[in-house]
Amino acid sequence: MTVGLGGPTHGWRKLDDGSPAQQHRTYERVHYSQVHLGVQVSLTVYAPSREAADEACRAAFGRIAELEDVMSDYRPDSELNRLCAQAGGPPVEVSGDLFTVLHRAHDLAERSRGAFDATVGPYVQLWRQARRSGTLPRPEDWRAARALVGYRKMRLDAAARTVELDRPGMRLDLGGVGKGYALDEALKTLREHGLTRALASAGGDLAVGDPPPGRRGWRIRVWEAEGGGRRLVAANCGVSTSGDTEQFAEIDGRRYSHIIDPRSGLRYGEPILATVVAPNATASDGLATACVVLGERAGRELVEAAPGATLYLRRVGGG
User: Fold this and answer.
1) Which H/E stretch holds residue 310?
2) So what's the pLDDT on residue 146?
3) Vertex 36: Cα angle to 31 and 199 (nearest 5)
């Protein structure tokens, strides 16, 4: 697959990362952006040449485009939607990428007791319509969606690499984990091309590689209730921020979040921002989404139980 890169921003600079083998080596910092997964996706790399950066970033964007064909719920012919079209039938063999993402989503669903759930698609469809129309879903539509949602209705077989969706009409939504996985894969592709000093971002998700030359890590600003903003120095991890401070719907005087609680089909209440640092962006993406659904106390418990994860949470309007 050939992917264009558009216009980069770049500049030569002498940078020393402190190791004798790297002293006096010249790096070029190059930044590219493209639209994928419904958002602006950016890659920032430190490379020995512009040509090396071009080749690696073209391959990384190509990998993201491949995954968009796998995970998109907007594209009728995506692998995800082809799987959903066979809901209610026998187990379906899927690609390694789709199985991996669904397996991680299912694992988080169990750990969060359903606060994160990839089968939330029917509720997502109802709320997309509600936001456009400004009216709440009809009770009969709500009941029909509820019958189709529940992570236990999705069965995975790792040995056969198959997925079985129990009921016709089930729809999967990977919005809370797909971007993180795509960014992890983009970073992996950059590493395969020899560029380890890299950062990939999409929306509120970051996949962070080795530090820029001469630094301990990438400087990333996060928000939390105590003390306002904090600047992290991060390397080789995922950082994801999820919240409902900007995207929401007001219907009949009540504020509804765009982040849906799969256990009830809606979420309303005090808006919060949750930032999670985890070993990779797939993990941080899903945990941040689950934390918004769970709220502060249960969200902290979930993150504290996840190896290598840290939560920064801010209650908007609450300090």
Assistant:
1) strand 310-315
2) 94
3) 35
